[in-house]
Amino acid sequence: MSKIKVMSENLANKIAAGEVIEKCSSVVKELVENSIDANSTEIIVELEDGGLKMIAVKDNGSGMDEDDAETAFLRHATSKIYRDDDLFFIGTLGFRGEALPSIASVSEVVLKTSTGDMGTIIHIKGGKILEKKSSDALKGTSITITNLFYNTPARLKYLKSEQSELANSVMLIEREALSHPGIAFSLINNGRVLVKTSGSNNLLKTIHEVYGLNISSKMIEIKASSDDFDIYGYVCKPEILKSNRNHMITIVNDRVVRNNDINRTINDAYYTYKPDIKYPIVVLKIDTDPTLIDVNIHPTKQDIKISKIDVLNDLIFNTLKKALYENLLIPDAAFRLPETYNEFKNEVLESKIEEIEEKYEQKEFVQTEFNLADLKEEEKEETIIINEEMKKLKLYPVGQAHGTYIIAEDDEGVYLIDQHAAQERVNYERIQEKMKDKKVMTTDMLIPITIELSQSEFLSLKENFDYLKELGFDVEEFGINTVAFKGHPTWLVEGYEEAAIRNIVDLIIDDKKKFDKDRFNDHMVKSMACKMSIRANTPMSKEAMEELLNELVQCKNPYNCCHGRPSIIKFTNYELERMFKRVMN
């Protein structure tokens, strides 16, 4: 008797559902993407109890006729691809033909659809059609899902709480709205509207509708191109960082994707602008030839492979780095807008709303645009542009608070400067510049510095003697497990030579990973810049404060210390007057 048999269609669909349908938001994703592929301009998602009780998606797309409505629930039935070659030119979000049959196999589905003529209603439960009939219906499709996972109790058991399931669906719709700003999205839970966008096809306005005015007003527009990729979007100023990567949204050919290489590149572009534990808000749209990407590697189609990823990463890194350097990034500290636009409206008189909205619409957002192909080879590695606007600032110190913060002013407002962070930035860039010199200038020491080490430490240090000599250190063995430094490069700050040398030795020994020159150089410079900088609770003379401020505004990145903490915060005159009620609007 044969043991191998072809499984039933319904069983195959249940197995597929285990990969495609993980939670309520998975259902929402598949249905919304079908609506987008149907060229909808308005999509409404209605949930009950976060989707645990009911999920309904309604659109005004092309709809289906009676035959297609029934065929759509067959496994691998799709209108997106027909031939093998179509896999290399995928221009739609869906193409596998697994979503609808998978959903129908583990739930109860009511489909209403129409192409503008006679409509069709199909009622399916557990993959079996219970009813099919004609009806009047507006052009578009409406799908209602109930009893999700009623026949797969193991999956039903592991659905999360209502709030958790709802949060996943809200995040999903927010990302779909950002990837398709020309579509009006609405998400309603238990009768309450949680997400609503206008479909204006304006990405910044959509960011405003999703995240609120506090974030959208702090975004920088970016735009760049290479031979293979076009990128466009908005990146945040470092003053509104988040504690997780959820707001780093990457959209490739209108598909929201996950790609660790791209996320790492974005994060690297913010290097020294932020602490390592914080992440930027980024909405980045990438357009490329479909043949350069492969979305057919996972049922959810969110993980993709990108050809020429190095070229794309260079384009993203250079564009973001250039945008951050070209924009004045001093955070305004005093006036903090509410997290959402609705909160903002509730806090002001209705008579002022139109005036504020008008000001917001007229607000200028800086656009950074360049073509990577136009850069010369030697320019590609260094696209840093010193901020001319910051260099024009003339800051006059008027005092010091708690021996830690310099208080300065100019015609536009008052500034608070963290003296340690400011000097750390000055030292960091100064040392970096000196280390770039091809010819290393060294100086001999009157009294050599000897350092005694353990056997393992000595061997670790000795392995990197050649590199220390490249940096300009005159170092040699001096007895058992002991080294002597007889000279050092001139970029060591006078008076801190011994502390700097001992710190460099510790860094080499403590580097548990394979020694990497670039990583070590940066770590060394950061550490030296920090240790050589003035500490908190240290009084400064007015002359010293003036000198520090003059050096800070000449830095390439004067806004943060080399570890990403802000170095300067601004209170505008208007904000000060609002705080003291000198102005009331």
- List low-confidence stretches: 334-386
- End-to-end Cα distance, whole Å, is 86 Å
Query: Number of helix segments?
Result: 21
* Beta-strand segment tally: 23
Average pLDDT works out at 80
Helical content class: 25-40%
Q: How big is the Rg? A: 30 Å
Largest sheet: 8 strands, mixed
Give the percentage of residues in beta strands.
15-25%
Gross morphology is elongated
| Cross-sheet strand order for the largest sheet | 5-4-3-6-2-1-7-8
The chain-level structural class is alpha+beta
What is the topological layout?
Blueprint: H1 9-20, H2 24-37, E1 42-48, E2 54-59, H3 66-71, H4 99-105, E3 108-114, E4 119-125, E5 128-135, E6 140-146, H5 153-157, H6 162-179, E7 184-189, E8 192-196, H7 203-211, H8 213-216, E9 219-225, E10 229-236, E11 248-252, E12 255-257, H9 260-269, E13 282-288, E14 293-294, E15 305-306, H10 309-326, H11 341-346, H12 350-362, E16 367-371, H13 377-380, H14 388-391, E17 396-401, E18 405-410, E19 413-418, H15 419-435, E20 442-452, H16 455-462, H17 465-471, E21 474-477, E22 482-489, H18 497-510, H19 517-531, H20 542-553, E23 568-572, H21 573-579
Parallel strand pairs: 1-7, 9-16, 11-13
Antiparallel strand pairs: 1-2, 2-6, 3-4, 3-6, 4-5, 7-8, 9-10, 10-13, 11-12, 14-15, 17-18, 18-19, 19-23, 20-22, 21-22
Helix pairs in contact: 1-4, 2-6, 9-10, 15-19, 15-20, 18-19
